[in-house]
Amino acid sequence: MEVETFKGPVKSIGINGHPSMWNGDLKLFEDSLAFFESTGFTHIEIPPHGLDIIMGGKINRERLERIRGIVQRFNLNYTVHAPDFLNLMDTVNSELHRSVFDASLEFTAEIGGKLLVYHAGRVPAEYAEDEVLIEELKAKERELLKEFSDLASRSNILIGVENPNVDSDIVFGKIYTYGAFIDKLVDQVSKIARPNVGITFDFGHARVASTHFGFDYFSSIELASPYVNSLHVYDSFGRPNNVDRELPYMFQLIYGLGDLHLPPGWGDLPLGKIFSNLKISQAFMTLEIHPRYKDEYVESLKAAKYLASLINNAHTG
Fold first, then answer.
1. How many Cβ atoms from other residues are within 10 Å of residue 195's Cβ?
2. Cα gap 102→151, rounded to integer Å
3. pLDDT category of residue 1 using cuts at 50, 70 and 90
4. Which domains does the chain have, with CATH numbers?
């Protein structure tokens, strides 16, 4: 069902459906959508890996029909977050990744989704020592995203290339991703040069990356802003997890490390300053909050509406 969106740069405020919320349980999925709708969210970001909809790189048709029947019962819009491990720069499993991207895009279209989010590609850290190889793999990713852009345009779907999390594999030197460097992400998206391919800007990811790699956080936001088509919003402390590669969430939280997905106001990201100065054209705004904080959804939505008003004032003022 089509939902009226907001006026101004923020077209909709939604919530992420964390994969652990559902673990393939479609009754839990339906109950969650009912709760999200009653809370006042206008879109839900759905991870297909939380619904067992993609199997072996292909859509499970029986489950698709059930999911499609569920989403149509609610007065909500939908975006989709492709599986986190989807990687168009992988040199070993390239065809399988291509199939998963194609299935993710098909799923988005089948549920009437407006946006598909994809984490920028990554490679083993030793690849980064070969600049020629990195550029070849980025060119490969660009060509694939152009192909998928053409397919997405048939269903009026946007693709948002997200700046990924600087996780422990990156911090401890196992993985390299150009997308953690906002200038490199902007360069990649600008070279794709398709109106329906932009950036999903994750403020928590960027803050951790800026701390770890030493670039200016606010300058990176300004640089990315012309290309942004969606926002991932939550709070954290902006500290990379450099204590222990396998540190469980509850201990990351104690030390304020990594990608915590806290409700706004629970960490120390300067969200008010960020949004007061944010200049974007139009974007979906998705609260990405860990489901352990589900009791905070109502207050988080209020905070998101306030932040959206700051964007609007910055954009018009």
1. 9
2. 9
3. very low
4. 10-316 (3.20.20.150)
